[in-house]
Amino acid sequence: MNCGLCYFGLMLYFLTSNTFSYETSSFSSTLDYRDFAAGKFKDILTDSCYNIGEQQIERRNTKPEFNNISRSIKTEDILLTLGSNFLTNRTTSSDHDDRMVEGVYKLHILPNGPVSGAVCLDGGAWCHDADTCYQRSSTALGSSTCFRHDVHLEGLLSNQVKYNPDFYNWTSVFVAYCDGASFTGNREKPLKVKNKLLYFRGRRILDAILDELLRRGIDNASEIILSGRSAGALAAIIHADYIRSRFRRVTNASFRVLADAGFFVDAPSLNGTEIIRSVFRQMSSLHNSSTSLNHACLHAQEREQEWRCFFPQNSLPFVASPVFLVNSLYDLWQIAYLSNIRCVLNIKTCNSTESFHIMKFREKTLHALRSVFDSSNETAVFADSCLVHTQCVMNALWTKIQVKNVTIAQAFANWYRGGDEDRFRIDCIYPCNLTCPKHYRIKRG
């Protein structure tokens, strides 16, 4: 959201391989939703800034158990720009925050492998009012000045056969997230807050990213997977048909979507407050998002109810692109910060009322999924009972969590290749699944 002279950037990074250990929750019981909206949490994958607003650089040690994507300074693929230092104007710019197209981390390219590409959109909640967007503007979720020089990703984006046997040799691209509205913003004039101009132009950022991917040769691909996690998964659902149409202008590549933890449920919090509805309603207005949402879904809504198309339960029946949903029936982040049941982060501390509502979240999720089950499109669902949020870029979850004796990786690959007759894999009631991470399981009764 900084309004100084910046550039459109393409950042290329290369993958080195190790393993991943998923031992503890990265969420904090001291945070609430507004903290996420403002970007006030320290585990943003692309973040290099330690203190919010003060822009102090965090010196993080690379952990050996992670895949490390670090910058190569010896090749021409270090840091390329779309026209060097390019100052955009207010009518044609693709900026939201600081006039820079978000970081596009190219993880690996194996020239001898098949010409196929996987594009992953990162997440990070949404900012929905002037205050949260202003605070967010000083973080990696609102400014490219905080982008890290390396990221740690696995799962679908891994180049190791043992973790990703079906897609390890694909060209993988990881797109950072900094527009605050799942790439839907289309507000013409910036908003001035405390002498800073905030830009809400996520849709133009998306278009610039697609332009760059096409310039980089994705039109030569025979297969394309659009994936995303959390708010990035929601973006993948919202923009699936639009992105496919952009690619189809120049390529006949097959196109499928993997949405990881992007199925946000339209449900009130523990005290009856409709947090997620309020966020989507305000965000749609502030960012001028409605024109970027699924057009068929928009036509099905009543006037001034267009924001409802942010909810996948309303938009997915209108999505023509094949979508594979990976979601927990007990989504940890949704329960903790949208249902406002913070004890789920340490479930043994929950009282009987909180435990009851946690268990009811499975029913709410399945009820919301009914529109998907009843639709005639190709959407598939892998819904496990683990207390997690996002699973497809972590080896330990991607390859270990099972529903009906099939892992996420196997289920997605089978669906992708057309060999899975079970489109809807629905898990049993918590805490039945012994393949879930141990620190989120409790002993039964």
UniProtKB/TrEMBL annotation:
Belongs to the pectinacetylesterase family. Notum subfamily. This is Pectin acetylesterase. Residues 1-21 form the signal peptide. Keywords: Signal. PANTHER family: NOTUM-RELATED, PECTIN ACETYLESTERASE. InterPro entries: PAE/NOTUM (IPR004963). One of its GO terms (molecular function) is hydrolase activity. It comes from the Eukaryota.
